[in-house]
TrEMBL record:
It comes from the Bacteria. This is Methyltransferase domain-containing protein. PANTHER family: RIBOSOMAL RNA LARGE SUBUNIT METHYLTRANSFERASE YWBD-RELATED, SAM-DEPENDENT METHYLTRANSFERASE. Signal peptide: none annotated. GO terms for molecular function: methyltransferase activity. Residues 25-309 form the S-adenosylmethionine-dependent methyltransferase domain. Keywords: Methyltransferase, rRNA processing, S-adenosyl-L-methionine, Transferase. It holds the Pfam family Methyltrans_SAM. It comes from Vibrio astriarenae. GO terms for biological process: methylation; rRNA processing. The keyword Transferase applies.
Length: 313
């Protein structure tokens, strides 16, 4: 991280905020490596709150200058025009990802909007806020392709895909995640949007021990697979992903769709395509979804990979 690049950082944030819609948005994505010397910093706009995240420890001079730069930013015209209220600095490289309020008073449970849908975030106490912003176009695609569908949402987390699916007219969504607390937040996200909870199932189970229960609620017109890259004791991507893919023929309808995602920079898109061909050859690759432009990466294979498949009838 280079101290002299902070001017570039804050000017880019300012320009992005000037054109950002009145929704949650990433304003600066240093991790895409488009800005030399700023590879370990990101900045997100949460409709009045600015969250700046550091992914690598920096020296005290950089940290002091960053804090001063952010405080100065609160005097800018665009900050006041967009009704900025708070700046949170999160240290993602430290255990527990501690955060400090740089300016204002933190609203730790804000409700934000993405593509017209509401989601409640949880700031300041967790590494992740409750919604992965780089999956914005993935949720939009689901919303546009699930009319009257029965959807299986694996590794559901806080049910962002589920919210998008019900909003798009899905008949039912089955959410599965080991963390019951995350599913509880997903239930609240549905309630925020006025959805009929009777159309949504929440299953706090280990996926690899629950195939019978999963199959019972099928067959599915769409299966969404968006696992963590690694979850100690429960999921290792390159080892366990294929175990899921080989189950798909028993879960999908004749023309069923699959969204298979990988967010590890070490695993490329070919892994998903080749693994699907190997484990479920009647499910053909259709296309890779583009990522949101604000998440541009100099190496597309290192960024989020959202791969779409369809079963041959």
């Amino acid at each position: 991280m280079q101290l002299q690049q902070l001017t570039t950082f804050i000017s880019t944030v300012e320009q992005a905020l000037q054109v950002a819609p009145d929704e949650v948005r990433r304003l600066f994505h240093g991790r895409g490596r488009s800005w030399e010397g700023l590879e370990q910093i990101t900045c997100d706009w949460l409709q009045g709150q600015l969250v700046v995240s550091l992914f690598k420890e920096v020296d005290e001079d950089f940290l002091t200058a960053l804090r001063e730069t952010l405080i100065t930013f609160t005097q800018s015209a665009i900050w006041n025009e967009r009704q900025g209220r708070c700046i949170l600095l999160q240290h993602r490289y430290e255990s527990g990802a501690p955060a400090e309020v740089i300016f204002g008073e933190l609203e730790s449970r804000p409700v934000v909007v993405e593509n017209g849908l509401k989601y409640q975030l949880h700031l300041g106490s967790n590494q992740n806020a409750g919604l992965f912003f780089d999956m914005r176009l993935g949720r939009e695609w689901v919303q546009n392709n699930v009319k009257h569908a029965n959807v299986l949402n694996l590794f559901a987390y806080t049910c962002g895909f589920s919210v998008a699916a019900i909003a798009g007219g899905a008949d039912q969504v089955v959410n599965l995640d080991m963390a019951g607390s995350s599913l509880s937040k997903g239930r609240e996200n549905h309630k925020l949007n006025g959805h009929n909870i009777q159309q949504v199932k929440f299953m706090a189970h280990d996926i690899f021990k629950s195939w019978g229960k999963i199959k019972k609620n099928g067959p599915y017109d769409m299966v969404i697979i968006d696992p963590p890259s690694f979850q100690k004791g429960s999921f290792a991507l390159t080892k366990d992903y294929k175990k899921i893919l080989r189950r798909l023929p028993d879960l999908l309808t004749p023309n069923g769709k699959v969204m298979a995602c990988v967010n590890s920079p070490a695993v490329g898109s070919e892994f998903i395509v080749d693994s699907m061909q190997e484990e479920a050859p009647d499910i053909r690759f259709v296309e890779r979804l583009e990522n949101p432009p604000e998440f541009a990466d100099i190496d597309t294979e290192a960024s989020l990979k959202v791969m779409l498949f369809e079963r041959n009838a």
